[in-house]
Amino acid sequence: MIRTIAIAALPALALAAEPPAKPVSLADLLEASTPAEWRELDPDSTMYLELPAGRVVIEMAPAYAPANVEAVRKLVREKYFDGSFVIRSQDNYVVQWARPEGDERQKAMASVKVKPEFDRAIDAKLEFTKLPYPDTYAPEVGFSQGFAVARDAKRGRSWLVHCYGSVGVGRDNDADSGNGSELYAVIGQSPRGLDRNITLVGHVVRGIELMSVIPRGQGAMGFYEKASDYVPIKSVRLAADLPVAERIPLEALRTDSATFRKVVETRANRREEWFKEPVGRVGVCNLPLPVRVKGV
What we know:
Number of strands: 17
Largest sheet: 9 strands, antiparallel
Strand order of the largest sheet: 14-4-5-12-11-13-3-2-15
Radius of gyration: 23 Å
Helix content: 10-25%
């Protein structure tokens, strides 16, 4: 009898000795993804902003702000931003760029207005990957075409939300006073209180670290008090207007893909060795949009 019990216990002991399964990392998920789960950035909606420190790549969202995106495209093609400057760098908030105050082209834009596009009607044709977690600022949040968005089904409205790297159109008090000639990028906390109060036109997909380290302005709201402190912008171009050899062939993980849904789960429940307690949820601004150079 004793011999029988000892033999029967051996499998249980062997099982107990097996090491725990290695947690699946973000890198593992992306490596296992299929080519069909990635999308190439549209060259006509991709801007290259050239700073002294390097290139910042901005993907625009014409589905959510068509009039404002078109206004920005027009200015870029007119080379309006060539020779412009970062005129503001506010800690934990935004950097803002424009032509300097009093510049002739800047003065000519003062009377130009573009309709505000703070939100849009929900469109069933626009894919929406809903996050299964509550949000402080909206009834629903998730992703659409790679962009962080919020929705209110009762009102039938949807809008882009302010996350790290979001790019928007500066304006004065009047809702229609923005025209695309002043743009900003979020470089700090996610200022969700700005949602539906200003038009967002896209997000930085590469190079946000170049913006986030720009020296802070010492004036009110981070504006530079001296023109000598401005950070020059060499040029801004649409990828579509550059030779293929000068473009960066970026592709982003589709946010309606099975792999992205797995990314959401792994970010909500961190199981790497360092983490001791999975949170069980994740905010819309705490999910990375995986972007890579195609073929690398």
